[in-house]
Amino acid sequence: MNVISLGVGVQSSCMALMACRGEIEPKPDLIVFSDPGWEEEETYEYSKWLKQEIEKYGILVEFTSNGNIREDLLKAAEDGSRVASLPFFTLDDEGNTGMVMRQCTDEYKIQPVRRAVKRFLGVKTAREIKEPITMWMGISTDEIERVKTSRERWIINRYPLIEKMMNRLDCTNWLSRNGYPVPPKSSCIGCPFHSDATWLDMKRNKPKAWEDAVMVDKAIRNMPRMKGQVFLHRSCVPLDEVDLNEDQLEFDFNGFGNECEGMCGV
Predict the structure, then answer these.
(1) Domain extent listing, the chain
(2) Which InterPro entries does its entry note (predicted)?
(3) Cα Rg, the chain, nearest whole Å
(4) Omega cis (within 30) before 26
(5) Which distant-in-sequence residues (6+ apart) come within 8 Å of 53 by Cβ?
(6) Distance CA 182, CA 14 (A)
(7) What DSSP state is assigned to residue 55?
(8) What are the tens digits of pLDDT across the range 120-153?
(9) Does pTM top 0.85 for this prediction?
């Protein structure tokens, strides 16, 4: 069985469409997108188009979720309930800074995809799976550090874009050359891994998303269960007060190594 873990970013979208056209074989049995509930509107619009396009080729696409990470964060900030933490930046009373261990990728991305595979196979536990499934990951050559062997005995990770020696630009060019729209970056609106260029682009061009990120940043400042104050920006300064070098940053540096492309940590 072959499964694509779809992040709806440039690389995984390119990989999925290449598989549809037979440029990567074999034909996938299932494609799964796990929605954390806090992507930008453009990503959701693209994901709907992509699902319809893929299904023209007779491939099953499932959208799944483990809840809404934004709503879960706000609830945890208010009542102290447990929530999978983002890689927040922290500042204690002595002025020491730190970073919170990331749990969001596993709980909002990886685990929902695995549950979807089990549902597809009609099993409840991994022990019931007799032969390993092959999980395709949309990681390109410029992210080679993210290539990992699966720790699960029932999953074999495969990296088709690495096999084809394709980087992100190659994926963008392939999409354009074949008449497909290029997707926006896929990541949570308030992902602490955003580069300053990404934050600045959001502030300048996506006021609704920016206002939402600023609001959440303020709400999590004194999160129960966390030591010290909590911030979305690495400077440990309130997001709406961060110096984003607005006079100097005039283009997107991309920051591929630090951006979450919807498959962060996979």
Answers:
(1) 2-241
(2) Rossmann-like_a/b/a_fold (IPR014729)
(3) 19
(4) yes
(5) 17, 20, 180
(6) 9
(7) H
(8) 999 999 999 999 999 999 999 999 999 999 999 9
(9) yes
